[in-house]
Amino acid sequence: MDIDVGLFVNLRAFIEDECTVGLCSVEFSGGVWMHKYFQMVVKGNFCSLSVLDKKLKVCLGWDESPPMGHVVTSKRLRDEGLHTFLSMVDYYMKDNRGKHFEFVHHDVIADDTNEGKMKYAKFGKVGLNNHVSLSHSNVLQSAHQ
């Protein structure tokens, strides 16, 4: 089920009002269940992920209950490999040439996206799935494990 892209206005306000820095984009999932959804990376003073989830649900007008098939899930970044703020910025921008692509951001600058591109090029998508990207320095170590 596609997300209502009109909610971007709400997410822009959330990022600007509640976060020190952030970016949100529309992602299109292929495969059998093709649909659009939001993906977002933010920094802010949230005491827990459940507080962040609750604030997002209120922002989206889902404080009572989300529409059927919709969910809000937050995860803390590990700050290593691709699991860094800047890498996520670039990962979320990967479809920027797609006709479905839209994004909003607050205080994300070109230097941030450039550093994110370098990290994404180094670690690639496999870094998101708890896989190890092989490099010249770790290929033999990985082979012996």
Can you give keywords for this protein?
single chain; 145 residues; alpha+beta; 3-stranded antiparallel beta sheet; 5 helices; 3 strands; disordered C terminus
Task: Report on the architecture of this protein.
A 3-stranded antiparallel beta sheet has the order 2-1-3. The chain is globular, with a radius of gyration of 17 Å. The protein contains 5 helices and 3 strands. It is α+β, with helices and mostly antiparallel strands and 145 residues long. The longest helix has 14 residues, at 110-123. The model is unreliable at 129-145 (pLDDT under 50). The protein has one domain (5-143). The protein has helices at residues 8-18, 49-59, 85-92, 110-123, 139-143, and strands at 21-29, 35-43, 103-106.
Query: What is the tally of helical segments?
Result: 5
Mean pLDDT, all residues: 76
Helix content: 25-40%
Q: What kind of sheet is the major sheet?
A: 3 strands, antiparallel
Q: What series of H and E elements makes up the topology?
A: HEEHHEHH
Q: What is the count of structural domains?
A: 1
Low-confidence stretches: 129-145
Identify the overall geometry: globular
CA-CA gap between termini = 42 Å
Oligomer: single chain
C-alpha Rg (nearest Å): 17 Å
Q: For the largest beta sheet, what order do the strands appear in spatially?
A: 2-1-3
Which band does the percent of strand residues land in?
A: 15-25%
Helix and strand composition category: alpha+beta
Number-wise, the strands total 3
